[in-house]
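The protein record passed on for reference:
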Amino acid sequence: MKAISITEPNKAELVDIPEPAATGTGEVLLRVKQVGYCGSDLTSYRGLNPMVSYPRIPGHEIGATIEQIGEEVPEQWKVGQNVLVSPYTSCGKCAACKAGRVNTCRYNQTMGVQRDGALTELVVVPYEKLLTSDKLSLEEMALVEPLTVGFHAVARGEVTSDDTVVVFGCGAIGLGVIAGASARKARVVAVDIDDEKLELAKRCGATDTINSMNESLHDRLQEMTDGDGPNVMIEAVGLPATFRACVEEVCFAGRVVYIGYAKAAVEYETKYFVMKELDIRGSRNAMKSDFEDVIAHLESGAFPMDAVITKTVPLEEAPAALAEWSENPGEITKIHVKL
């Protein structure tokens, strides 16, 4: 069967691999129909993902149809059913798993990152990783997982309808944050340096936007909050400057959530941590509850799916699409591969 493999940095190609079968207890064989490229796929392609070895089949944003069912799979799962997949693993034994935070398992292996992913015709997964919806298309199902990352960050920030939430970055993950905070009826301020991305952020639920290249971030946020600063700052860019801005601009007793990885060491004025008594939290992957929240959000029709998916290509064109994204990252929000 056909698959896309990143064989080495800056090289992806269409390859033939053996077909799998759902032979193990609790396993389900899926025929993959739609896969979204993730930012981690791009960093893997560029050779910048330290968790990836080569060759690697990417892909963990999945819309698929059940092809075959192994033994001891519950009757709710049936051949021909459309599903999506939670692509993470959890050991059940580490400190995070014991605390119920399986999304950040110490030994997690995400599909397409630490292990091969789903950018292939068939893939086997445990039935416990399946979710479904009678209302979502396969295209929408493939959009669920990337949005869960943003929804999880919103949950980490304990966002409520009383909050003003600032989101740094209007890429695919940032748009998920914006949608998640909007779903909780918060006031959402999107910050970026691209006016087109800020317009898309409005369609995803942002109530206010700031182009930090053209406007004073500090002055605008002070005006919006009567001098207090926002209640929650969520960073989805990965720059030292935005990491620092979170603690500088957030209100006293505020919450800061980091999704992005800063590409360089970050120097802080640490007095703000103590003076403001800040809650500073990381956010990784997503919980099952986040998947359920995103499914409900997409079912409501509130998310502008067509505007977020920049282009859809067939499997044969997936390597070229990944190369194009690497060359022009600012022009692409989300690429889908249709099998």
About this structure: Residues 31 and 122 are 5 Å apart (CA to CA). The longest strand covers residues 27-36.
